[in-house]
Design brief:
2 copies of one chain form a homodimer.
Chain A lengths: L1 H10 L4 E5 L4 H12 L3 E6 L20 E4 L5 H8 L4 E4 L6 H6 L1 H22 L4 E7 L22 H20 L2 E7 L1 E3 L12 H10 L4 E4 L5 E6 H13 L7 E3 L5 E3 H12 L4 E4 L3 H6 L9 H7 L7 H15 L1 H4 L1
Parallel strand pairs in A: 1-2, 1-4, 2-3, 4-5, 5-6, 6-10, 7-9, 8-12
Antiparallel strand pairs in A: 9-11
Helix pairs in contact in A: 1-8, 2-8, 3-5, 5-6, 7-9, 9-12
């Protein structure tokens, strides 16, 4: 990793980088890192209120980045933005599983149609670009075995999972057929500063952080026995950077993940402990949520470890502590 | 099979059936059979010139079916048409692999967006409907082993394959989550009367039939060594009917296929022999075609044999003979 990160320092200097979903949780954290590495960064974000974009996420770097408010569904804006870029971090997406069932057409427009349209744009105006696509563990559905590796069958349990499969397959296809250097990372629960905490649209951990800071009980759905893995956002940023400059990564799919696997109940207890107080309560799944819950999930992330040298560095305790600190400090920017 | 077919005779009498792509190759053959079984059949077709719809396909049953010219991309028309139907044979699709690379957005609109929209319509206005979706072996891509069974990984080599994966996954999802009784058949090369023979948009066998009848050499792409399997359309109609009334089929995916596996060269020779003359020539793949060719492909179709009792009954020699007879007789309706 150390040698890789040194390479990074050179690699990103003066590179022209486009981040879709750039005002969102992961996009804004990535932007900050890239700026520190000397890159020239453009952020594109729709700022749709239900999604993750938040201008506060970049308030400390606002004068060092280009910001373009537009929607990945707008092919003309995207054409202009993609032109001349060295790397595209393609992070914009509809992420809510529940919303994908309630408005499947919107999920399709963003997670399928726009992805295909962005890749067509790359092909026509910038075939030399590198692209890293943010995929999701949701493509696997309910695991048939654990930990889940990249050859696990794809049996998504919601519309979002299906559309994200199409999205990543388009990237891999355009890599194979047109030589556009694409890589797909399948993210698991990512958490940390700048995430959406108004609701559970990005991950349930968002709303948990808010609940505990507000002194309300953490709402754990189901029996709380579901085991999951978690990545602190800085580690995900590491993975994105590695995936963007490694030739080995081209045309490949990698799981992210963590060796720390916890039940939701244990996670809630840990959060209470770090917070120095609070409690959780078990809440029965609503019918809609129950149907699309995937139960236990955690990743096998050996492939990215072996091929790109990535491994998460921030432990859950440390990551949660940093997250709580951040939201205690900046909560007004995230609560409404 | 005999007992199943007897069941059919009762099952379909007075059933209200909707067939999307109903003026196309498989749709029109299916319509004829359903009418003989006493069903009340409505056909919906866009009659887009590049696709398979052809009014001549139903000229002998025209007064016994409802025909509605509209596009599956039109949700209002579909809502009206789906209401009150007992079974939907969802066969409309963009089938050309090459066209899917040239106009990926159109393929997405038809093979993803419309499928999701049709299922939403079923969910809202007719959740009791049964749906059979015409999938394709193209979802597998280049086979990793042969014969290809249903658990073979999905690695499509073109946009069409990706969109057809999404299409079938939507059907399975709506079956699991909303209880709409859907089944997916993955078709391999289907051939026979009423297929499109103007070009290779449905299968290369279409244009071959035309070439040999016109006394031109059959154009075999590549070295002709690619091995493939073929189903005569009557056998595919059998499978569709079985899939539509079997409770066992609900939520399942089945390969169709044939025990007769031939190289393209041998198929061309067989066609020449049955025709009583003619010849073939090897034509190098164009760059576009080469990139998306899947090489050898043939199916393992044990699952449908075991679970639904389906097995192809029309041998290749007999099927090709019937096809040649048909196009010799009716060619004027298919040439332009």
């Amino acid at each position: 990793m150390t040698s890789n990160l040194n390479t990074e320092n050179d690699f990103f200097r003066k590179r022209k980088i486009l981040i879709t979903g750039g005002l969102g949780f992961i996009g804004s954290n990535l932007a900050g890192r890239l700026l520190d590495l000397g890159a020239k960064v453009t952020l594109v974000d729709s700022l749709i209120p239900e999604y993750g974009g938040n201008l506060f996420n970049i308030h400390d770097v606002r004068d060092r980045v280009q910001v373009n408010i537009s929607d990945v569904r707008d092919p003309y804006a995207m054409r202009h933005l993609v032109e001349g870029q060295d790397i595209l971090f393609n992070l914009a997406g509809q992420t809510s599983h529940l919303d994908s069932m309630r408005a499947p057409d919107v999920d399709l427009e963003i997670n399928c149609k726009s992805q295909l349209s962005i890749l067509e744009t790359c092909r026509h105006v910038n075939p030399g670009i590198r692209v890293v696509f943010a995929g999701t563990r949701q493509v696997y559905g309910k695991p048939k075995y654990l930990p889940v590796d990249e050859v696990h069958p794809l049996h998504p349990v919601d519309v979002n999972g299906i559309n994200k499969i199409a999205g990543e397959m388009y990237h891999l296809l355009y890599s194979t057929i047109y030589g556009i250097r694409c890589c797909v990372l399948r993210l698991t629960n990512t958490y940390g500063p700048r995430m959406r905490v108004k609701d559970a649209r990005q991950t349930f951990l968002g709303i948990w952080l808010r609940q505990i800071i507000e002194g309300r009980p953490i709402q754990v759905f189901g029996d709380g026995a579901q085991r999951r893995d978690f990545n602190y956002v800085d580690d995900v940023v590491d993975a994105l950077l590695l995936a963007s400059f490694s030739d080995r990564a081209v045309g490949n799919v990698y799981n992210l993940g963590s060796p720390e696997v916890l039940s939701l109940k244990d996670l809630a207890l840990l959060l209470v402990e770090i917070n120095g107080g609070g409690r959780y309560e078990l809440v029965p799944f609503g019918d809609e949520l129950k149907k699309i819950d995937i139960g236990d999930y955690y990743s096998d992330f050996h492939k990215i470890e072996l091929e790109l040298g990535w491994r998460p560095k921030v432990g859950l305790r440390e990551g949660l502590k940093r997250s709580l600190d951040y939201y205690r400090r900046c909560k007004t920017a995230y609560w409404e």
